[in-house]
Write a structure and sequence with these properties.
Layout lengths: L2 E9 L23 H29 L4 E2 L3 E4 L2 E5 L19 H6 L2 E3 L3 H10 L13 E10 L7 E10 L3 E9 L1 H17 L12 E3 L4 E2 L4 H11 L4 E4 L10 H4 L8 E4 L18 E4 L4 E2 L5 E5 L9 E5 L2 E4 L2
Antiparallel strand pairs: 1-8, 1-9, 1-10, 2-8, 3-4, 3-8, 4-5, 6-7, 11-14, 11-17, 12-13, 15-16
Amino acid sequence: MMKYFIYKLKFLTPVRFGTCNAGAELAQGKMACTADTLFSALCQEWIAVFGQKGFDELIAAVQGNQIFLSDMFPWCGLELYLPKPAMPPSVRRNTDVEGLKDRKALKKLVYIPVSRFADYIKFLHNGGDLPWLEEIVEPGYEQLLYRANIAREQDTVPYPVMVYRFKENSGLYFILRSTEYWRERFDIVVESLGLTGIGGKRSSGLGKFELAEESFETGLYDSDIMLEKMLLEDANLYMLLSVLSPGQEELGIAKQANSYYNLVKRTGYVASPDYADTWLKKKPVVMFGAGSCFPEKIRGRVLDVSDCGGHPVYRYGKGMYVGVKV
């Protein structure tokens, strides 16, 4: 039986997640990572723990719709956060944004507390103020670290690296939809990944974490009770909680008039030593981002983004959703 499980990560060191933007990439960063980045990290650790046979079983289970992952989102205390829905101005037609005292804060709003999500949807229709904006607690802060690029017979060149440092009693969480069988294996791999680290610059000690508590089924606290209801809810819109790569036959759903979405370009390098003698880039792909809303759930797919390497490279692009009544 498929269930939803929550993994709350508490970071022991700063963590670095890149932005995929051109330019000064190391000097830019973000708080959390997408499901495809999480899946790639889990795959590398899965091979180390369970070997190639165990990894092949994992890929088969994901492609067979036995495993679904969300992006990683922040948590603070007992509150879980969700991405802001990608609603266009036509949905907010009655919203007097100019009259908001907190309009600058609203523009910067990226994540919404689960306990306030219904209030936010009402605000999109009715307008008015969002007095609870001041209740939102930042889970941490950005920090620039400086590293040295040391080359032979050349001067040491320092360069900045943007990282995110989480405060006490806060971190990131992700949702797994699967069975108890796979949940037990995820527990092992996630605990092992915490020692290895997630994100960039792991060789510098970044991205190490532990589970804030053991993985648990939704319905344990007030916040995830509300989240569970949304995950199971039948609604007229479904908000995406993961990056998504639809199949060709599914693109028609996204073209419907009541679909609202954002697009993200995903790229990066292959870290596997068995792939090539040097680091090679993955094939770039454009995906729907978390917060996108569709009238139907789009299943999505797993892509092979290898390019002239020694083995397939999988990019996760399956959908996980919460129901949104508008």
